[in-house]
Write a structure and sequence with these properties.
heterodimer, A: alpha+beta, four-stranded antiparallel sheet, three-stranded antiparallel sheet, 7 strands, 46% helix, 27% strand
Chain lengths: 172, 396
């Protein structure tokens, strides 16, 4: 049961926290698709490449459509940004990414696009300073990759209290 | 190898007897001696056989009717039988009938969740076999593992092992009320009751099983509802912005690519989650669905179980109610399975509402606790008008 959404990408459920920023990153990378020719374009578009890999769509299509015949002017990017704003990126898509098959999620977790934190696996929750800003830091055992990992997100008093409460609730 | 193609043909339509099974095992044995493992052609043939409902039903039938002969044959070709998950389970079923231990539990546990269509029929009996001959293993390797993994399966239910949650649930229900076995196995054998052990789960073990199943099912229904709904909403985005107003073709292409890619992503998720939900509920198989629904009824009406699983039951109730509101969106993209699932969920919701009404005090006590996540659950439940009595009793 979803209890709270933090920063549009951190979904706090009653027994686990799920965070994903795959589509957010794809969204940010899209303007680069129509940039004037740059070398090593593939390295500039890691999230888009990942999305095409998951859906088996677009890797070919993206190459075909954008990697060739690139003689585009600057104004295109602004127009694209306006168009993308019309689509309104919805955080609901980030939310359902956890429905992908288990091995795909494992890959995504390794690449740093998703975080899955069951409250049972948390070893510590703390507040830290990072570059002058307060952050919440969670140390946990990732059940997908079976490694100890750290999750950091911007500090919010209510969210911090909620996570602590749910941590205690799940411990019983 | 080409000459061996089609050696499963006599078995696949379910009209075979013990002799045919022996010939089949003989062929496999020879292959195993010759190649040490099964060649790819043979493996695909075996998989075809595993997918056949008739074969699985008939095999279980001859296990019960011709036990002695099948036992001799399977033991003669034990090497082959141990290499195929279905036959390993068949050995367990025979052990259950003979009341003898013909296969060690360690060999049986890893194959419990190996996929095929009629897996539940074998899994429940295999669980009973483990329960009878190595009681401790059932708790330590299966029930406790299920309990510990539940949050992971709640977050990401699209994994094949989810079938074990359902089979454990059915098994726990059957142990509680033996007559449930007749719904599941009625067409195969009439006196199935005596093959289930007399040992029953204590309330703690049973509540772990019921709780895990409820939570995983609720989370699957939730994912299905949201993916179905967003698939519907996203399909209209293309019409809203597509086509006109582009200064350059590059923008049009980029936007088109984005829309199409996200659409594919949601469609993938929708498809996998729907498959999980169907296999978890057994919606397309009437016997399994009826067994689970009856089991739900029994488990909730048992007060000691109801107290321990009240939270997850209420969560499931909330999810079934939300599912019914969005059933139209979910059915839009799948005409084959989704209608079965909807009718199943409707029945489930009715059973839950009735049962919770009858022992409402237990649930009211749980919901009177302050603090998360109970607060959110209470708020969500009381905003639903379709839950009948529950919605207004909670508000005061």
């Amino acid at each position: 049961m979803l209890i709270r959404i933090h920063r549009n990408i951190v979904f706090i459920h009653d027994t686990y926290i799920f965070a994903s920023n795959l589509l957010g990153r794809v969204y940010r990378e899209i303007p680069f698709l129509v940039m004037p020719h740059i070398s090593k374009k593939k390295r500039r578009l890691p999230a888009i490449e990942t999305l095409s890999w998951i859906t088996k769509y677009g890797l070919g299509a993206a190459r075909e459509k954008f990697y060739e015949e690139m003689e585009v002017i600057e104004s295109v990017r602004e127009e694209l940004r306006r168009k993308l704003e019309e689509i309104e990126p919805r955080n609901i898509f980030e939310y359902i990414i956890r429905g992908l098959p288990r091995n795909t999620l494992q890959t995504l977790a390794k690449l740093g696009y998703i975080w899955l934190i069951p409250f049972k696996n948390i070893s510590s929750i703390s507040i830290e300073e990072y570059k002058g800003a307060k952050i919440i830091r969670i140390d946990y055992l990732c059940p997908l990759t079976n490694t100890r990992r750290i999750f950091k997100t911007i500090y919010d008093q209510e969210v911090y209290d909620l996570i602590k409460k749910l941590y205690l609730y799940n411990k019983e | 190898m080409t000459s061996m193609r089609g050696f499963v043909e006599p078995l696949i339509d379910g009209r075979f007897n013990t002799y045919d099974l022996e010939v089949f095992l003989e062929v496999l044995n020879k292959t195993l001696i010759q190649y040490r493992s099964y060649p790819r052609g043979i493996v695909s043939e075996i998989q075809k056989l595993y997918g056949s409902e008739e074969f699985n039903k008939r095999l279980l039938e001859i296990l019960f009717t011709d036990t002695g002969n099948v036992n001799t044959i399977l033991l003669r070709y034990k090497r082959v039988a141990l290499s195929l998950s279905l036959l390993r389970k068949a050995l367990a079923v025979i052990g259950l009938i003979n009341n003898s231990m013909s296969i060690s539990c360690d060999q049986l546990i890893p194959v419990l969740v190996k996929p095929h269509k009629m897996i539940t029929l074998y899994n429940v009996l295999a669980l009973s076999y483990i329960h009878r001959f190595c009681h401790d293993k059932l708790y330590f390797t299966i029930i406790r593992a299920v309990k510990e993994k539940t949050p992971l399966y709640e977050a990401n239910p699209t994994y094949l092992n989810v079938i074990l949650f359902r089979d454990l649930y059915i098994y726990a229900s059957i142990l509680y009320k033996h007559e449930l076995a007749n719904i599941l196995y009625g067409s195969i054998t009439s006196d199935i009751d005596k093959y289930f052990t007399d040992r029953v789960f204590d309330p703690t073990e049973r509540s772990i099983i019921v709780d895990s199943y409820n939570r995983v099912l609720a989370s699957t229904l939730q994912l299905l509802r949201i993916s179905g709904r967003s698939l519907y909403e996203w399909s209209s985005v293309k019409d809203r912005i597509g086509g006109e107003g582009y200064k350059t073709k590059y923008v049009a292409r980029a936007v088109e690519w984005y829309i199409e890619a996200v659409n594919k992503l949601i469609a993938t998720i929708y498809r996998t989650v729907l498959n999980t939900a169907v296999s978890l509920t057994g919606a397309i198989n009437e016997d399994i669905a009826n067994t689970i629904l009856k089991g739900v009824e029994y488990n909730i009406s048992d007060e000691s179980i109801a107290i321990k699983t009240a939270y997850s039951t209420l969560k499931l109730l909330l999810e079934t109610s939300l599912y019914m509101e969005n059933a139209g969106y979910i059915e839009e993209y799948d005409k084959e399975y989704a209608p079965h699932l909807t009718s199943y969920v409707e029945k489930l919701k009715k059973i839950l509402v009735e049962a919770i009404k009858s022992i409402g005090d237990t649930y009211r006590r749980i919901l009177s606790v302050e603090g998360e996540p109970i607060d959110t659950l209470r708020k969500r439940l009381s905003s639903r008008t379709d839950l009948g009595e529950i919605s207004w009793t909670l508000e005061k």
